[in-house]
Amino acid sequence: MALTTKLIRLIYAPRLHAIDRFMRDPVRTQRRQLETLLDKASGTVFGREHGFGGIRTADDFARRVPIGEYEDFRPYIDRIRSGEQNVTWPTEIRWFAKSSGTTSTKSKFIPVSREGLRCCHMRGPLDIAGLFARLYPQSRVFSGKTLTLGGSHRLENTGGGAEEGDLSAILIEHTPRLARGMRVPGAETALIPDFEKKVEAICRETVHRNVTAFAGVPSWNLVMLNKMLEYTGKDNISEVWPNMELFTHGGMNFTPYREQYRKIIPSERMKYMETYNASEGFFAIQDDPASDAMLLMLDYGIYYEFLPVRELHDPSKAVPLEGVRTGVNYAMIVSTCNGLWRYLIGDTVEFVSTDPYRIRITGRTRHFINAFGEEIIVDNAEAALHAACRATGAQISDYTAGPVYMNDKTKGSHQWIVEFSTPPSDPERFADELDRALQRVNSDYEAKRFRDTTLLRPTLTVAPQGTFYRWMASRGKLGGQNKIPRLSPSRDYVEALHEMVRNS
Question: Model pTM?
Answer without folding.
Answer: 0.85
